[in-house]
Amino acid sequence: MIRAETTTESTFSAISSAISDFFKKQGIAEPEISLDQPVFAVYGDVSSNACLRYAKELKKSPLDVANELAEYLRAQKKVAANVSEIRVVAPGYVNFFFTLDFFASVVEEIIGSKNFGANKNLTGQKWVVEHTSPNPNKAMHLGHLRNNLVGTSLVNLLEWNGAKVSTDAVMNDRGIAIAKMMYGFLVAMQKNAGGDVSVEIWIENPENWHTPESRGVLPDIFATECYLAGEKAFRESPDTEQKVRDLVVRWESHDKKVWQLWKHVLSFSYAGIERTLARLGGREFDKIWYESEHYEEGKKWVEKGIAAGIFKKLEDGAVVSDLSAYNLADTILLKKDGTSLYITQDLALTALKKKQYKADKLVWVVGPEQSLAFRQLFAICEQLGIGKREDFTHVPYGYVGLKDDDGNFKKMSSREGTVVLIDDVIDAAREKISAIAVGGAGDESVAAKNLPAETAEKLALAAVKFSILKSDRNQEISFDVKQSVEINGDSGVYVLYTYARMKSLLRKAGNSRGESGANGAKIAAENIFQNEKAKDIARLVTFFPSVVARSAETMSAHHVAQSLLAICGAFNAWYANDTILDGGENQSAKLALVAAVAQTLENGLAILGVSTVEEI
User: Fold this and answer.
1) For 97, which of 85, 240, 446, 448 could close a Cys bridge (C-beta 3.0–4.6 Å)?
2) pLDDT band per the 50, 70, 90 thresholds, residue 274
3) Which residues, including other chains, have CB under 8 Å from residue 153's CB and lie 6 or more apart?
């Protein structure tokens, strides 16, 4: 089914096309046109800075070009249809004021459709987004949480922009770190500490070892304890280090007993990961890649590169790339002893992804410390014919830290014991919510501790997710539990509270979505939108589809989060100064606006992965 173009899309398109045509007639071959929302409504509902951009090329002042453009646009019927005024503002902006009926039409369309904000910008494209990829040897912490939220929101954004998106993750389920966890399990989880330990003894007497249940801990915490015990022993004893390395050798030799232990220990990790991801509520991955299944394939790609003269083999036997044509530093692909590195395995996995998905774009959501490695990977993939560099995108994100005593950013550290686990963060948010009073949507106060458990969980998740996603993904952030649950602050709880207030108004009016108020909005447009506070809301929701498009372009959902905060602020300002359920002739129009705003909030929250709450 082909989605019909909305009033917002057709109007913005008509303005952009007319501006583009004007500059083409002036000799600008391919003008780039963008429409922005002025900070202050007095300057218009939408604005173009194209005259500032191209004035120098046209050898005119920006103001002269703006005046000429304004005259040209006033004569265009498609532009004039929903524009009441075109105004030129120094030093060269052209600002547009929409008719009140235009805003009424937007309100009608929103309450008549549940996908307001969606567009067709990426229709026909297939994307693959890899994100989260938790370490099986550790419980998931705040860093994993930001990765998951950036990745999940990006997937939602791409889909709202028309793309078909697959998701995947990678489990680094082999190597020295996993061997440390296996050894830690043997030595630290033996019920009778101090006895002889070996893989063989465990296989013969598995009942002599603890499980998460017998220890009374969650499975991912259990796995973490195993790893930390193995890591400590590895660092403190050369003899233990050799035992751990022997486990790696035996695993790579497909020793059945070691593989049995390997699967046993990893089962705890996977159970913990699945539980945490289920709590976060994101969609399941379409594919999980296990390093153990493809790590050897990378060496075959290196051999191809050597045979093709792409890679260089050094005198000591190591293999190195040649990336001089890309102005990148070279990287080792195989060590001198023939063992592979992460990039070797990434070559194999990228080739597998290209074959599996046949996608237009492959995306990796990974921390900024891997930026150089990804540039090298993409260049080598191009050299090997796996794919073009422009088909691959690394989406980094800023570190998540804690606030120190002075309120400054402090990076988390496993060694310092300052790593904060995802479950602990959500639980802390729930505790904060339980300690405050939340004003009900019907102006009745209820103690949050009396909220249903499901509602409390949704509020906690909203608080945590919104707190992270409201910032540009590249920005370092210090997570603040107290701020994340503020009812009157820039928080997810504030947005959900505002949404619940809207739904309460609609319930009281017996109008769950405002359908009966849609026609009333158009009839009463002259009255309802003479109220500047109501018109401010209409302006903001009108621009929501542009926000969704911009968020996809920048691959950062913070634009959506900030838009929702602005809409909530405008709505609450209107609510505080007007009576919605006044029984007057404009009530149906007001309810239609309420329903439209509620739907916009619901759509924006869905992009952020936040579930709505109808009643608080």
Assistant:
1) 85
2) very high
3) 469, 557, 560, 607, 608, 609
345: tokens are 């395995």
Q: List Cβ neighbours of 500 (8 Å cut-off, separation of 6 or more).
A: 440, 441, 613, 614, 615, 616
Determine the pLDDT at residue 464.
95
pLDDT tens readout for residues 280-312: 998 899 999 999 999 889 999 999 999 999 999
For residue 441, what pLDDT is reported? 40
DSSP E strands in 372-502: the ranges are 392-395, 400-403, 409-411, 437-439, 445-447, 477-478
Q: State how far the Cα of 489 lies from the Cα of 500, in Å rounded to an integer.
A: 16
* Residue 421 vs residues 138, 269, 415: alpha-carbon distances, Å: 10, 14, 14
Strand partners, 126: 164
H helix or E strand, kind and range, residue 364:
strand 361-365
Is residue 142 within 8 A of residue 479, CB to CB? The reply is yes
DSSP 340: B
Backbone region of residue 129 per phi and psi (left: phi > 0; alpha: psi in -120 to 50; beta: other values): beta
Share of the chain above pLDDT 70, in %: 92
Name the phi and psi angles at 362, rounded to 5.
-110, 130
